[in-house]
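fold description:
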Amino acid sequence: MTFDTIAVLGGGAWGTALANSAARAGRRVRVWARAAATAEAINTRRESPRLPGIKIDPQVSATTDLTEAMQADAALLVVPAQASRAVVTAIAAAQPIPIVACAKGIERGTHRFMTEVIQECVPDTPAAILSGPSFAGDVARGLPTAVTLAAHDESVAAALARALGSATFRPYHSTDVRGAEIGGAAKNVLAIAAGIVAGRGLGASAAAALTTRGFAELIRFGRAYGARAETLTGLSGLGDLILTCSSAQSRNFSLGVTLGKGQVPELASEGAKLAEGAFTAAALVEMAAERGIDMPIARAVAAILDNKLSVEQAIEALLTRPFKAEG
C-alpha cells in the first residue's frame, strides 16, 4: 500500500499541522476547509488563520470542495468529534479510501467512538485512529512528536504510519483501535479536572494526585471496554494524559483553569477554542455508569459542566470520599 496523496478534512489548527507534517513526509496534501477564507489564505498567503506565523509547505493546497479533496489515497478526518458524522456522511459516495480519525472524543447520544462513526457511515472504508501527545504548533513547526496510529488491519496501520511518519513525526502503529480511542477521549475530560486544580491554586501535590488518580480511572474504563494495557500506558493513554494535564497549550486544561478561577467559559462548538473534553464528558460518564465503572473525577467534571455541581462542591465531594486501598 502506498499513500502518496493525502486529504486533510478540516482546516483548523490541527488539520493545518497534520497537513504540514504529511507534506514534510513527502506526500502531496489537499486540505478541505469549510470556509473559503481559510482555503484562500492557505493557497495565497501560505498561512492558516488558525496557526498564524507558521508557513505552510508548498506541497499543501486547499479547497472548499469536499469531493475534490477526496481524490486522494487516504484521508485524515480532522474535524471536531461531534461534527465527524456530518462530514463522513457527506463523503460516503466517494471512493473507499482509508480514513484516519484525528479527533479525540466520543459522540454524544450514540456513545460511538470516531472509527465507529466512520464505519457506520462508510462500511467499506478502512477506519483508523491517530492519537497521542501532540500540540498543533509543535507538529506544524516540525518539533519532535510521537503518536499512536491504530487500525484493525495491521498492514493498513503500518502503511499509514510509514506514509505519515518523518524524522520529527513518529507514528507507532497498533491494532488496538479501541485503546487508542479511549486514551484520547478520556484524557481530555481528566485534563479539564487538572486545569480546575491549577486555576483553583490547589498546588503541585494536588495536581500530581489528580493526574495519577485520573489515570486509574482511565485504566478502569479502558479495561472494561476491551483496551490493551500496553496501549493505555503508552503514548495515546498515559503519554497524552501527562501532556494535557500539565500545559496551558491544552484547550481542555485551559478550560479547566477558567472554571477553577470561577469564570464562565465560552464553549465553542468548533474552531480555535474547542475543548473536546467539554463535549465528551457526559458520554464518558454515561458509558462508565452502564458498566459500573467508578470514575469520580470524570463524573465531577461532567457535573460541573452541566451546572449540577459548583467547583467548590465537586472538590469537597472528592476530598470527603471514604479512605480505601489504592487501586
